# Entry
Amino acid sequence: MINSILKLVVSASVVVMAVKYLLIPGIANFSAIFKLSGKARGQVIGYATSIPEFTVLVAGAFAGVFNAGLWNIASSNIINSILFLVTITVFRQQLDLKKKWFKDELAFGIISILLPLSLIWFKVGAGLSVALGLILFFMVYRICDQIFNKHGKPAPLPEGIENGNLFIGLALLLAGVFIILLAGRFLSSSAGNLILIFNLPEWAVGWVLGFISSISELTSFVEIYKIHKPKRIPGYIKDTQEAIDALVTSNVSNLGLILPLGIFIYLLIR
# Structure
């Protein structure tokens, strides 16, 4: 048991370090080269920080435990949202959420919580129609985002990455993805061992894994606000814009891309 707990703590720490020192700087290099707005960079961060959920869900699908994977997505989206609210409060930017141009992102963020809970409540099984419906939901989100939101000016960059470097950015990004995938496997296996030891039900398994896989999102929210902090003036909301997009993109991709992939794998191997 002590071995599994130690592996869990080390793996979680590795995820935090990989997000902070590899993913975020890697994405920042691409942001500098391609002049990405805060919104666009937030979305890229959102996709990148969904990697732990991807690892956990695919592992669960191969293990034939679909309900635990569904609870993982539902709990992860809830925990991501709570961690976002905690971060925005710590940085004293919670009043930004009253801005009207955040309404559509916040609406999709709420749906990304309610939809998986509805699937669980109504005991909807893993089916092809469910997977296709979730992919359709993701497509609607992307279309609405393109219609209702403008990307704006290039986002502020971390110190030392003002010019960007394609090779360094790609190397950091690939290294970050690889390390998070590897750490995610250790997270899943060590959490699985603890679950067996304590004989936890599937919903509890999902919540444990959801909490663990949300570590990368918390790290990204904090780093986003740190990057923008030197630029902050009264009325400045670009930091919250980027953080909201990181949150909503992560939650929606968990539900509309990763969960359908888990369903496809589950249907193929069951």
Q: What stands out?
A: The chain is about 80% helix and 0% strand. The mean pLDDT is 85. The radius of gyration is 18 Å.
